[in-house]
Design brief:
two-stranded parallel sheet; alpha/beta; about 260 residues; binds NADP nicotinamide-adenine-dinucleotide phosphate; 8 helices
């Protein structure tokens, strides 16, 4: 359990990393606001968190539904930590990225993050600071894919780069009014999203371990939380290659499957 964040909101808590983050945050005295689209899986996660002593308020909301997201977040009361985690992936498979996939990935991974983070910032701006001196924290789940424009998942890599840069840049000004922003950049995590990847995933990590590392980074106030660090530095190095060379090198690897 985390002793720092008592009122936590997590999107995409019905599966994978979001579910693990919810369990990691759960404990006596903690209130969790959890969202997802699958009511049954969300209910299972809510019960697991209640068993750990947390108060849980699960809701079924699509992060792309801006008015409903704003209404939900404004009605939650105090929020110490909001994790914009809901996201989707889509690859090219043996062909190319479809128009529908490109739009769905951008809508969910960028607009969905804004639909969560912007109302959360509005709520936090009116709150008194907590023990750590901040009114609240907004964490955006990006990816190490943010650092490589991988040709087999163009929209996914671009969407993650957008939210990673947005969160980190916005922290520069939000700090001045007592709000922290964080980017979370995991490598490969064992979740339903990666289950169908046909290629080797170096240093693949369990979701519970990813959640522990995420919360450890948030608790010490890291702006950019990255893991595993070896893959991070590899991604930074490969991502710095000239784009034509990068496409030729990565084009020889097995592609990410279509959604
Ligand atoms: N797995 C990895 O290796 C990895 C690495 C880096 C970053 N990430 C990021 O981590 C986050 C979680 O991914 P995951 O691996 O845990 O995948 P996952 O198991 O597929 O979970 C995705 C979650 O997002 C929710 N979601 C998707 N679209 C939504 C929408 N329109 N509205 C509301 N909720 C929506 C899903 O809800 P429902 O199932 O209820 O629809 C689910 O709870 C994503 O942002 C992903 O990009 C994952």
């Amino acid at each position: 359990m985390n002793p720092y964040f008592l009122n936590v909101l997590i999107t995409g808590a019905s599966s994978g990393l979001g579910a693990a983050l919810a369990r990691e945050c759960a404990g006596p005295g903690v209130t969790l606001h959890l969202s997802g689209r699958d009511i049954e899986r969300l209910g299972v996660v809510a019960d697991e968190c209640r068993a750990r002593g947390a108060g849980v308020r699960p809701v079924v909301i699509d992060v792309c539904d801006a008015p409903t997201m704003a209404e939900w977040i404004a009605g939650c009361g105090r929020l110490d930590l909001v994790i914009c985690n809901a996201g989707v992936g889509a690859g090219t498979g043996d062909a190319w990225e479809s128009a529908d996939d490109a739009r769905r990935v951008f809508d969910t991974n960028i607009t969905g993050v804004l639909n969560t983070a912007l109302p959360a910032i509005e709520v936090m701006a009116t709150q008194e600071p907590a023990r750590d001196g901040f009114r609240g924290h907004v964490a955006v789940v990006a990816s190490l894919a943010a650092f490589i424009a991988g040709p087999s998942a163009p929209a996914y890599a671009a969407s993650k780069a957008a939210v990673q840069r947005w969160a980190e840049a916005r922290d520069g000004t939000e700090r001045k009014r007592g709000i922290r922003m964080h980017s979370i950049c995991p490598g490969f995590v064992r979740t339903p999203m990666t289950a169908k990847n046909p290629f080797p995933m170096p240093l693949l990590m369990d979701a519970d371990e990813a959640a522990r590392r995420t919360m450890a980074g948030l608790q010490v106030g890291k702006l950019r939380i990255v893991y595993p660090r070896r893959i991070y530095w590899l991604a930074r190095a490969v991502g710095a290659l000239p784009p034509g060379l990068l496409n030729r090198l990565l084009g020889a690897a097995p592609p990410k499957p279509k959604a």
